[in-house]
Amino acid sequence: MRAFFFAALLGLAPMALATPEGVEIQYMDSHGRQPSPASEWFSARAMEGPYHRVVVCDAPALEDHGHDAPGKVILVVDDAVYGGISGSLSTFQTDLEGEGYSVEVWQVSGGTAEDIRSDLQDEYNAGGLDGAILIGDIPAGWQDNGYGEYPVDLFLMDMDGTWTDSDGDGLYESNSGEDPEIWVGRLTPTYITAGSSVALLNNYFAKNHAYRMGTLSLPDRALAYEEAFTGLTGYLDDLYDDVTTKNDPSSTNADDFKAELMNGYEWVHLISHSSPWGSSFHDGAPPEGGGTFDYFEVNPLDPHALFYVLNCCSNGRWTEVDNLANGYIWCETYGLAALAQTKVDYTNDFQEYYTSLAGGSNLGDAYRAWLANNLYKEDGAVLFGDPTLKPHGQSIGAAGIGEGGSPAGTDLWLSDPITDGLHSQGRADTYYDPSSGQVFATCGTSEDRRANILATRSDSDSWAEPVVVCYHEYWDWHPTVGGDGQGQVWIAWQSMRNNHETYDIFLSSWNGSSWEAADQLTSGDPFEVEPSMDGGGGHAWLVWQKWENTDTNIEGTMWTGSEWTTIETISGQDGAERHPDVAYGGGRYGLVYQAMRDGDWVVAFRDAPDSGPFGSEEIISPASGEQRYPRIDSDGAYFWATWQNGEGEILCARETSGGWESPVVVSGADVGCRPDVEAVSPSEATVCWSQGSSAIRAAEYGGSNWTGPYSALTGDAVDDASLVADGSGTLWALYGKRGADLQWDLWAGTPDPTGVAEAGTAPAGRLSLGLVGRNPFHGSIGIEVQAPGRADLGIYDVTGRLVSSHRVDPGVFNWNAAAAGGSIPAGVYYARVECGDRAASVRMVKLP
Asked: Are 245 and 268 in contact (CB under 8 A)?
């Protein structure tokens, strides 16, 4: 696919209005990424084992299947998700049967697309088969016919054609008689990181049922958004009387497109230069281009649209992690179907698609009719969602399931913005430098264009004005910050600055007042990405994921106190290793990463003494269940690790003198993703994670048990948080939050018992709280109150529940937890004092 990338860089000539069909839309990715080769996908599929199918539910015989009557639909369900979605499947099946379809359910595991196609051919030859809906990680055919390697669901739609793989590499070079006889729809959230596959599927089927029942709807109108090749959405007028068309080169840009997605359209047709992960707007303001709408913006935005046509190069390549076109249907409230391409796209007016839909066809029949007439250029088309749906739902001109926003409840943490309008992009990293007493933070930013690295720091009182680190024209991404504990602090990141075909690791050091010029640590063809760094005692480790051909390993280098050592492979087993995170504590290093072992993703751990190297691998997670995105921290003696599993549960395990304890599910009934952990001491730790797109949830360990989860930080849209504790033990969470302008800023949050910040005019005199004696404590603890007069003191648990209240005088108040209205369990508590309209708080940990 590299040829398409260079075509995108070179093919920037002005485009005429009403460009004819058959003209290629160039591949364009704002971060310079390239699609993964087919061989990587084949390797992962091979670990699934041989094909196995169980017919869970036979379809009843069709008594009279006329040309226009509903026929048989087969639900092909991945065994890995079947148990978790069986209730939703039952409702979906009932809905389909209520519309006249004969429904058969297959539970499948392992195997290849050829196995699935053979069984579908048997059903087709028996008569009456309309199509199949692929639910979960169901394999696809792959093709390489001059347009690169790409997955083709057409292979599963063609019931009588001949497909040729002359060299036996799994890629079909040619085919004949490939007209689609059936339609296929795909519900594959496997490579979407917004939540577990089970949770995303259950939510999709809930939306699907609501749409069928008329309780989920949007205004009966369409948006035609033409960033390129204008004049090719005209047939959309056949389907909708109300069509808004936007094609002015000076105003079609990413910000405007996002704004339009919130205006409420049942149907959206976008023509844009794109990649698997984003849609780029080459025209538009500013002169450098109109920006990119990336996958990571979709879920938080929750676009107010139900159906999409995405005339966007490679936008439908669902085998890539966090694919944009696939992502549209996994939003919380809206999104039911999207038609896109897995390869380089071509302009097309979609005449057959819109004409068929206007005549009353469902999405699947219209898709099949359109594809049959456009196979030469559009054979990489994929339909995400349920093909049995039809547009023109219960048009009430307003949303039917609510408008999103912050979840109910009160935040227990205070928060403040660090940036304002810098287009920060969340997923921050943090580091406490004991030498200077400062907390350093870094994240990505598109300031002033493309992708750069942003940095700030705090003295525990205020955050410094953020600055761009080592500005460069091309893609700087995924930063990490760390140090040696003795004043040396670095930021490392992946960049394309010296090689536009791959990523290398770059490093910048802090000189006490500014960031130094970047040093390049790696070079060559491999992709070196997602670095992580930590250190202490004068040393540091920097690790990252190396992607070479189809293999992914963990590599790293150590700071000896005077130089970085020669790069070494830390983990290079046959199975893939990804997403490393490293932590320092107790004179040694801990490393966790996501590893493919025996066909399952697990969390692996290695440790190293202060002088290195890392030792043998230890699996600290369950051996199955899709364990992924681990993070690690040290409490000064031992390590704590957290990660998510395939069910969306957040787990945490801690190391003791006897080794790693069994992981604990700390998220309760929550469904979350991308957690982080901060361990202040062996008896005090916090884990936080993203829940949906509008909340950061947290749970706390207080010596013997976990309490929570609770709502720490919420907003219209928030991104994953990075936790760090400063020298006083104050906990900070650095995270991304979207503002009213739909742009992202970097925010800092810190715990507070009720989430109510100080406000208004204070009485004369100081108001503050402090602790007297040891914290954590056992039976009682002294709380020092400084106030201008008598004040109200409340003790709260981590859920915000008031445990006890007292009217106190300035001075030391002794809180006896054992006598505070019954048995008070071990855990984290907050004391909060109020006087007038001022308030102050302090955090306490009760031991058993």
From this structure: no
